């Protein structure tokens, strides 16, 4: 039985990421003060992973405009991230930090480590500026994620964070009606 990480705070970590041609240090302190996405994937130089990372790269500018930073994470090293970035057109378009987690510490703290393989599940975590996890999505290795849906989830999380007493119904899009839970709605939806 696992315990949900929803509304828990990001655990302390220090790691090296490949970002915009440099190796940079990243810690949980870098996450605080803005919305963040941690996007775990199994491994560099694989098959579904580049399709997902390329998809997120296509939405990165929109996420940045929304005040969101993206951190991709795998148990590869930051050196491997650089090599992949330098040799793949799809990965070459990535502008967000690619965190290396060769010890698996970060991957384990988010509960997505496949211990027998030393790889991460496909796990997506959206955190608010306080470092609290608000969205979790975890997939088996063969199931790719949608960056378009991730953007929608971030929009919903940001909306409810600033509109106390409102909730976003299924498939909600910005500008659409929300709900204000009350006794009057019970059995009416």
Which key terms come to mind for this protein?
peroxidase, oxidoreductase, alpha+beta, two-stranded antiparallel ribbon, 7-stranded mixed β-sheet, Alkyl hydroperoxide reductase subunit C, EC 1.11.1.26
Structure report:
It comes from Pseudoalteromonas undina. It contains 5 helices and 9 strands; from the N terminus they run βββαβααβαββββα. It has a 7-stranded mixed β-sheet. Strands 6-7 form a two-stranded antiparallel ribbon. It is α+β, with helices and mostly antiparallel strands.
Structure described in brief:
By secondary structure, this protein is α+β, with helices and mostly antiparallel strands. The chain contains five helices and nine strands. The chain is 28% helix and 24% strand.
